[in-house]
User: What shape does this take?
Amino acid sequence: MPEAPGTAGGVEPAEPAGYAPAPGLAAGLEADRALLGRTSTAERVADILRDRIAEGFFPPGTRLSEDSVGGALGVSRNTLREAFRLLTHERLLVHELNRGVFVRVVTVDDLNDIYRVRRLVECAAVRGLGEPPYEVRAVEAAVLAGERAARDRAWQDLSTANIRFHQAIVSLAGSPRADELMRAVLAELRLVFHVMADPRRFHAPYLVRNRQILEVLQGGDAVEAERLLASYLDDSQGQLADAYGRKMSRR
Assistant: This one.
């Protein structure tokens, strides 16, 4: 007689010593089934709002009305509140008692910590590239998008392209966790860009440096690319922290 699947000699395998099924386990999981659809929808809503924040659609201090946002996205109040909770955990939103949910205004200390994380992640992504050639099509697409935005004088698009450039740099590591971390970090950084009086003046000079890093990566020199990136981040932090600090002191 053939053996039953998953058995040895037709004998059911013994349960591990000390094993005892939790009472009502199946019933408990069935009760959680409804959470799956709601949670996955909430995560998708959070993804949409995070992207909108990173694109500059919601400036810092903006109140996010449950009725307006939920109605626009066609989601329930509970789903939207879960999405808000996720983004609050990522430091993109803040809940103020009896007032509602607002896009967060970051501090100068926040800004410096963002750059600390960026150095840890972005430079490590380049440092770990291994042997060339490197797959840099996403990096190149972001550079081209930035140059096109500058020609069109579309300064918000230029800012978005610069964010995409750094996301593409991190994606070179091939780590979904690093990608997820950087999406949140760069969305938070975008909140700083809104208070810059002249986004063209801030972003345009870095277009040249973005292309330089791209060309060095295309040439297979990860060591030089990391050096350029580290210098880039130092200069960017210094310029942004100085301007942002002065702007915030006048608020």
User: Anything to note?
Assistant: The longest strand covers residues 93-96. Residues 1-22 have pLDDT under 50 and may be disordered. The first helix runs from residue 25 to 54.
